[in-house]
Each structure stands twice: as C-alpha cells, then as structure tokens.
Design brief:
The protein is built from 16 helices and 29 strands. By secondary structure, the chain is an alpha+beta fold.
Length: 716
C-alpha cells in the first residue's frame, strides 16, 4: 500500500477531505477532494522545460464531468461523454481565472490541471471544490505558484443570512449566487448571478467569503509544509534590459506621441512606424549579439514583448498622472452610444447596440416549449427555456479568421449575458415561449459581452417579451501603480483591458445588480477599491440605460407577425393518454391536421404553438373534442345534425350529442321544430340535465343574453 497523506478543513460548516499520494502518482501532483458524497480527482502536470516559441504562460485547465458520478449512462448514439458541456467549460474557466495571475512573468513551462468529477451527490456543488483541489495540487507540485487560492460560493437564506457553499436546494432559493476566489489577503476573481441585489449585498458577500478563503489558504500552506514540498524559485533567465533601452532611445518619444493623440488610427500607424524603427536598429546588430542569440534560442519575440511593455508604461502613466485615457476620456466617462431596434425584417426581435468602436447585433427568436434545450449533464437542472449565444467573428477586429464553433471565451461571454437577463424574464406561466438570443459582434474594441447584454435586453423588448425591466451592463478596469491610489476606469476599451489590471463587468437595472464577473491581472484588489468600482459601475450603468431608452422604453405591445402564437389549455390528467393515443397515434393526427407544435405536461397543461391561427384553432377543437365531458349547467356551441317531431339533436363534440326538446326551443309554445331550428344551424345551448343513462338534455331558450355574450367573448 502506498503512503498517502490526508487533511481536513471546514468550509461553511461542512468537512472537506483532501488526500494525496494514493492515486495517479505519475502526475507531478494529484489530490482527491471530497465533501459529502461529492468527490473529485484533481491532477497537475508540470513540464520540466519551458516551451519554445511562445510569448504566453501555457496553462491548460480541463474540468471533466463523468455521468457515472450520478449513476447514469451518457445520452447520444455512442453513449460516451463526448465534448465538454458548456457547464464543464465554465468550470474550467472558473479554475483558470484566479490561478493564471499568480505565476511569475516569463514563466513558460507547460502546466495542465485536470479536475475529474467521479461522484456527485447533487447537493455539494463541485465547482468550488475543483478550484480548491487545483490550488492544493499546484501547492504540492513545487511549481512557482504564488498562491494558494481559496474559493467559496456564497448564497443567502430567506432571513438574509450568508451561506458558504450552499447546496443546490439552498442556491435555488437564494437571491444571490456568487463565487469568490482569492489569496489570504485579496480578491482575484468574482463570478455572480443575482436576482436584483444591491452593491452593499455584493460587498457583504465578498467580505463573508474572504473569511472562508483565508482559512482555506492557511490549511493549504500547512499541508504543503507537512508534505515537505520545496517550491521552485523562478528566475527569468533572459535579460531584456538592452532591448528596453533601445526601445526607449529609438521610439520612446513616438510612443508618447502616439498615446497623446486620441485618434485610434493615428496611434496604430505611429506605433507600427516606431516598432519598425526599433526592429531595424536591432537587426543592424551583429549576428552573434546577445539579443539575436536569445531570440533564436527561445523562438520568442522579445522585441514585441518589451515594446508592448513600453506602451503599457506610457498608457498607465497618462491615466495615473494626467487623468487622461488613450481615447481622451476621463476615468468616469462612457464612450458615445447609439442604439436601434427592429433592424432585421423577419426576426421576431432585434437590436443593435454600439458603444465607441464596439458594436453588437442581437436577435431574439421565439418558439414553443418543445424547443427548450435538454441538458445532458450531471446537475439537477435538466432543461433551459432561455438561451444566449455569443458569436465573435474575425472581421470584428479586422482579421482573416475561419468561422468555427464557439470556443471557451465565447461560451463564457454568452453565459454572462444570459445570466444578466434571466432575472428580468417573465416566468413560463406568464410567457410560455422558449427564447433564444444570438449576439453577433460586428466590431470589437472592448466589452463585447456587456454590449451583448444591452443588445439582448433591447431585442427581447422589441420581440414583445414582457420583461420586468431593461438590463444594461458596463465593464470596469483598473490601473495600479506604486505610490498611487488605484484608478478605476468606466467602460474600458480593448487596450485598457489588455494593458490594465482588471476586467470587472457589472449588469443590472436602475436599482440593482443581476450579474457580475471580475478577473484580475494584478494579484488582487482591496475591498475599498472593489466598493468604489461597484459604485462607479452603477453610475456608468445608469448612463448606458438612459441611452438604451432612446431606442426603446417598453416591450412591444404586439409581437412580430412572424413569431409563433402560443395557446395554453388544461385537460384532466386522466385524459392525457386519450389525447396522445396508442403509440402517439392521436397526437400525431392532431399535429398533421393542424400543423401546430403540441406539448403536453404531466400536470395536464397543453401548449399549442403555431404560426397559423387557423391551425391553432383546429388543434384546440380536436383536443377539446377528445376530452369533452358534458356537465349540467355547461354552455356550449354545437351543430344541429338531426330533427325529429319532439326535438333537435345537437352535436356537442367528442362524438357526443344532446337533444333540445321542442319545449326548450322558444319561450312561446311551438308546434314544429322547423323553421325555428334547421339542420346545419350552429346554436348556443345549455345542458340542463344528464339522466342516469347518460342522455344529455339541452335548452336553447334557457340561455340568457348575458350568458350568450359571455360565451362568445370567451371563445372568439
């Protein structure tokens, strides 16, 4: 038996067990993490040598769900796990985002972390456990990881009390779902979906999470020491001082000039000119010069790296010292905005949101409940009736790029915009449609996810979806320099995201927050700065919402003529089998006759979706006929099909009929049925008696004018 080491820590009143040394010992490090009956294996592999020819840190995170973790065999033809689900991709991103900033600049050894979910009790959620396991594995690997990190999900009960790592059941009842990750003294990542909460609620949740995170970090440090781990000391072997000096000498003034001219095209052209001069100077150096040797050995373009660093220095100095950004704005200022709705002729709803040089087209499509998305995953949620898809083509940034399916970034941005708008949607009982929104990025210069959020909200309103409110979003940035207070930036553009220290997206209406996402390039953010960023984001969001209202103020009163109509009726549960028929024969006949989409729930609620009103009427009539059960006092319309001397027989539907006795035709005495009632006449009648043989007795004269008017109003 191999020797293993175990430890325990408490998170939110629950015991989390961590073990290493027992499984997967060929990996650099490996741990099992267990809470309740949720258990993950988390493995870390670190390459011995840096990868040649790259200018980034090659960190790869894979989170894998096993359907066997909940005792199920995967769906699909091959009955195999197949490609990662959106949920697995989102968890992979959750793990990656707080870890990546905590590696030293210049470190280029490949690191892969694989988190495998092997057991899931559907109570203790696995994502924060996977994040914790990844940090444990890195701490045990000996890699120059500047962690550890802790991670905790925070919810809230009905009394407003915070809950650390709530169960699925607790999370469903909570108005707050926020994942916070950080080190022992600072926050690095926040991801949240909310049901209209305040900035103070967010800060209270973050501060609550920090207590748990600090305990997690202390436990990891102690466990690594117990395991005798010696952390690698990383020293960048490549000295780029001479390259820096050449850039400053040749291009320093040109970079300064480029960033002090607020025209983007001028800046790009000026920087390209400066870069060319720097390359020419370095190319003129002898072939055996240190710079050439270093770049040839590594395959890394250190000139490009240091040129970008020079740009970063100038841009950040402008903001910190002059209060001026690369496009001339002050830190609180939002770029110019214009919006329009109804831009796509046959779309059910559409909108364009443009902010500066970022532009997104959002299109809303409505369908019946039969088009809901089935989720073949391990979570208790098995279906979705609202979906948002984010599409980022190469032309949006002026690049030639093959069109492919969504990558991890696209999935993440789509999920954020989806979470942002969900709290504003009507319930399925109020609006029974399945809704899909696509957001195509037409031009990108920062914050396309927030443009997608805004565009989606307007597209939903244009489609006539009765949303509770309009949702807007804004991306915040931050610049931190030694001996200066951090500067928070409203509505960051691409270069401020790339060269800045934070990307903090906040969505909501005028009063409250619906979603947020914060990533750091720096090694954390203080609570005071976070609080200031939230307040500044609210100011920006209110401005953006006011601009959106110039295009649309409320949901359209009428839906697009190209949108399907939905009719809902309820049948007794005992009649569901009758409507479906043996082997689905009856329901198929209704669909074929009407052309409508029909969805029957176990509760007896029948939803009829049709692009044709006549088709919907046919389906309704056929279903009502099949489920018709006469009751005394019922008022209905039927066709006279037979006349005998003492009365007229009326077809009531569902193969059933009733008779109007001659005495119930008119208020006065009559001798013959005709001409008062004729075969083929449609008449409104009332059931006055059903005898013990099931024969239905009707009255024509007993229907009052008020009853007749009410019936016609309800059935037309």
């Amino acid at each position: 038996m191999v020797e293993s080491k175990k430890t325990q820590l408490e998170v939110g009143g629950k015991i989390v067990e961590v073990e290493t040394g027992k499984y997967a010992n060929s990996a650099t490090s490996s741990v099992t993490v267990r809470c309740g009956d949720t258990m993950l294996f988390v493995h870390c592999c670190v390459s011995k040598e840096p990868r040649v020819g790259i200018d980034f840190f090659p960190l790869l995170i894979d989170y894998e769900e096993r359907m066997s973790s909940i005792g199920r065999i995967p769906g699909g033809y091959n009955r195999s796990e197949g490609k990662a689900s959106d949920k697995a991709i989102l968890v992979s991103r959750l793990i990656d985002r707080p870890i990546r900033p905590l590696f030293p600049k210049g470190y280029r050894n490949d690191i892969q972390i694989v988190a495998q979910l092997f057991s899931y009790d559907q109570e203790n959620q696995p994502d924060t456990l996977a994040m914790l396991g990844a940090s444990y594995a890195l701490m045990l690997s000996g890699a120059p990881f500047e962690g550890p990190i802790g991670a905790v999900r925070v919810g809230r009960d009905e009394n407003g009390n915070m809950i650390a790592n709530p169960t699925h059941q607790q999370a469903e009842k909570s108005d707050l779902d926020i994942v916070v990750a950080g080190t022992h003294d600072s926050v690095i990542m926040v991801e949240a979906g909310c049901k209209f909460v305040t900035e103070d609620d967010i800060m209270n949740a973050v501060e609550f999470a920090q207590v748990e995170i600090k305990k997690q970090c202390e436990a990891q440090v102690a466990f690594a020491q117990e395991c005798g781990v010696v952390k690698e000391e990383f020293v960048n072997p490549y000295d780029t001082t001479e390259i820096k000096n050449i850039i400053q000498e040749v291009a320093g003034d040109m970079i300064y000039d480029a960033y002090h001219n607020f025209d983007r095209a001028y800046r790009q052209n000026k920087l390209e000119e400066a870069k060319k001069l720097v390359k020419e100077r370095i190319e003129a150096l002898p072939e055996d010069h240190q710079i050439h040797v270093m770049m040839e050995e590594t395959g890394i373009d250190f000139i490009a790296e240091e040129f970008k660093a020079a740009e970063k220095k100038v841009m950040r100095a402008m903001i910190v010292n002059e209060g001026v950004r690369a496009d001339g704005r002050n830190p609180h200022e939002v770029r110019p905005i214009w919006c329009e709705v109804g831009v796509i002729p046959r779309a059910h709803g559409s909108a364009v949101f443009t902010r500066g040089q970022t532009q997104v087209l959002s299109v809303a499509t409505l369908a019946g409940p039969g088009m809901k998305q089935e989720l073949d995953g391990v979570d208790p949620q098995t279906e979705k009736t609202y979906m948002h898809k984010y599409i980022f083509p190469g032309f949006s940034v002026g690049e030639v790029k093959a069109l492919r399916g969504p990558g991890r970034r696209e999935v993440g941005h789509g999920n954020l915009a989806e979470r942002a708008n969900v709290p504003a949607l009507p319930s399925q009982e109020e609006f029974g449609y399945t809704i899909r929104v696509t957001s195509d990025v037409l031009e990108s210069n920062g914050s396309t996810s927030m443009a997608s959020t805004c565009g989606s909200s307007m597209a939903l309103m244009n489609a006539g979806v009765p949303v509770k409110c309009m949702i807007g979003g804004v991306a915040m940035g931050m610049i931190t320099e030694p001996d200066h207070e951090p500067v928070v930036l409203t509505d960051i553009q691409g270069i401020e995201d790339f060269l800045g220290d934070m990307d903090f997206k906040v969505t909501g209406n005028d009063e409250a927050i619906t979603a947020l996402q914060m990533d750091m390039k720096a090694k954390g953010i203080s609570n005071d700065t976070l609080r200031r960023a939230l307040q500044q984001a609210k100011e920006g969001r209110l401005h953006i919402l006011s601009k959106m209202r110039e295009a649309i103020t409320e949901p359209a009163k009428e839906m697009s003529p190209f949108a399907p109509s939905i009719t809902t009726l309820t049948i007794p549960q005992s009649d569901i089998g009758t409507v479906i028929g043996p082997g689905g024969k009856q329901i198929r006949a209704i669909i074929d006759a009407s052309g409508a989409e029909i969805d029957i729930q176990d509760t007896g609620v029948v939803t009829i979706t049709s692009n044709d009103q006549e088709g919907a009427k046919i389906a309704i009539k056929m279903i009502k006929d099949l489920t018709f059960k006469p009751e005394e006092g019922m008022i209905l319309k039927g066709k006279v099909v037979r006349i005998i001397p003492i009365g007229a027989f009326v077809e009531l539907g569902g193969g059933k009929d009733g008779m109007i006795h001659i005495s119930q035709i008119c208020k006065e005495r009559i001798e013959t049925i005709e001409p008062h009632v004729n075969i083929g006449d449609e008449v409104i009648v009332k059931i006055i008696k059903i005898d013990d043989r099931g024969r239905v007795n009707l009255t024509l004269k007993g229907v009052t004018d008020e009853e007749k008017a009410k019936f016609e109003a309800e059935n037309n």
